[in-house]
């Protein structure tokens, strides 16, 4: 039986952090054998809010690719590719953009939160938001459907994007009287939203509140020590009332492959300082093999580029097949 298709990806807006690892990478690793996986470095999407910083996006393409490979993505199993190298995605985005209203995009809760975070770029009321940024969920629907993906391992912030993708797919099939795409489902991990170390609601590369996979042990320990906590002293897992300490307990649980409710029992009686030291030591231990592999890759950028080229070739055939089905359905197959 043919394997189901998996697509996911990351924006090259910075290197990957532990929120990505526990929020999305763990699932892509676990699913690598049983699915046909496509892992995209979403440079076109990163440019929607970094259009004035092309060097930053370019640099981070390799960073994100190395993070994925170091974490265990096997480029022989998973097609690792760069979004802009598949022009059929851009073409499909144009066709899909007719099927989505501007009001729907403006109501998307993730887009709304991101516009609010990017006041410098988009104005305090979002009055300068660009057409491209507002529309990135449409482009994301095209990323997913160009390989006709069944499943998309993501963090919680991406659920509205998956819902929109299913709406677009249904509308497309209905209007053009065809059945080309599966209805893609999100796959969430046990930690679908790791909070930032500054207490903000999401660890994010754009907010500088993260432990990066590539950080060295000293920097990691420093960041954990400085992580925001409440003024309490006991270590508990109570995300609703004590979100910051609970986020650290969650990280501790994830690296020990335990449930936070159980992991917290190990920590009884410890004060915040001692707990943070232990968390930093254990996190550094957990990430050590990944970091060693990453250091090897950093010394071989050409090899990483070759892997991306291998991925591009694998996606291209599939994308061409999808776009010709789309053109036929839309009666533009002249
Ligand atoms: P940016 O701020 O540029 O959007 P980001 O940190 O949100 O960066 P993305 O590249 O947008 O990272 O996200 C890649 C994947 O990681 C997505 O599936 C997203 O849902 C997931 N993810 C990102 N941040 C977290 C987090 N803090 N916790 C869990 N999952 C996350
Ligand atoms: Mg994001």
From TrEMBL:
Keywords per UniProt: Aminoacyl-tRNA synthetase, ATP-binding, Ligase, Nucleotide-binding, Protein biosynthesis
InterPro entries tied to this protein: aa-tRNA-synth_I_CS (IPR001412), aa-tRNA-synth_Ic (IPR002305), Rossmann-like_a/b/a_fold (IPR014729), Trp-tRNA-ligase (IPR002306), Trp-tRNA_synthetase (IPR050203)
Protein's GO biological process: tryptophanyl-tRNA aminoacylation
A cellular component annotation (GO) from this entry: cytosol
EC number: 6.1.1.2
Catalysed reactions listed for this entry: tRNA(Trp) + L-tryptophan + ATP = L-tryptophyl-tRNA(Trp) + AMP + diphosphate + H(+)
GO molecular function list: ATP binding; tryptophan-tRNA ligase activity
Enzyme category, top tier: ligase
Family to which the UniProt record says this protein belongs: Belongs to the class-I aminoacyl-tRNA synthetase family.
Name of the protein described by the UniProt record: Tryptophan--tRNA ligase
Naturally occurring in which organism (per UniProt): Candidatus Yanofskybacteria bacterium RIFCSPLOWO2_01_FULL_49_17
């Amino acid at each position: 039986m043919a394997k189901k298709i998996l697509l996911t990806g990351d924006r090259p807006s910075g290197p990957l952090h532990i929120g990505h690892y526990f929020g999305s990478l763990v699932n892509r690793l676990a699913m690598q054998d049983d699915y046909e996986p496509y892992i995209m470095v979403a440079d076109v999407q990163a440019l929607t809010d970094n259009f004035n910083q092309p060097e930053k996006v370019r640099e981070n393409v390799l960073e994100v690719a190395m993070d994925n490979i170091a974490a265990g993505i096997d480029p022989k199993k998973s097609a690792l590719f760069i979004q802009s190298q598949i022009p059929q995605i851009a073409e499909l985005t144009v066709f899909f953009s007719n099927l989505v209203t501007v009001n729907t995009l403006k109501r998307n809760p993730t887009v709304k939160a991101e516009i609010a975070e990017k006041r410098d770029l988009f104005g305090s009321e979002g009055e300068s938001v660009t057409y491209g940024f507002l529309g990135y969920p449409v482009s994301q629907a095209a990323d997913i459907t160009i390989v006709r993906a069944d499943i998309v391992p993501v963090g919680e912030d991406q659920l509205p994007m998956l819902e929109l993708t299913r709406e677009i797919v249904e509308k497309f099939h209905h209007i053009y009287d065809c059945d080309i795409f599966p209805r893609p489902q999100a796959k969430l991990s046990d930690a679908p939203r790791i909070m930032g170390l500054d207490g903000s609601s999401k660890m994010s590369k754009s907010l500088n509140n993260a432990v990066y996979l590539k950080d060295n042990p000293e920097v990691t320990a420093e960041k954990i020590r400085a992580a925001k906590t409440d003024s309490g002293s006991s270590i508990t897992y109570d995300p609703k009332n004590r979100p910051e300490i609970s986020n650290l307990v969650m990280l501790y649980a994830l690296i020990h492959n335990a449930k936070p409710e159980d992991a917290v029992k190990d920590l009884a009686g410890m004060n915040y300082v001692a707990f943070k030291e232990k968390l930093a030591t254990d996190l550094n231990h957990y990430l050590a093999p990944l970091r060693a592999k990453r250091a090897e890759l950093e010394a071989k950028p050409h090899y990483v580029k070759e892997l991306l080229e291998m991925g591009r070739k694998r996606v291209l055939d599939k994308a061409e097949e999808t776009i010709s089905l789309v053109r036929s359905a839309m009666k533009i197959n002249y």
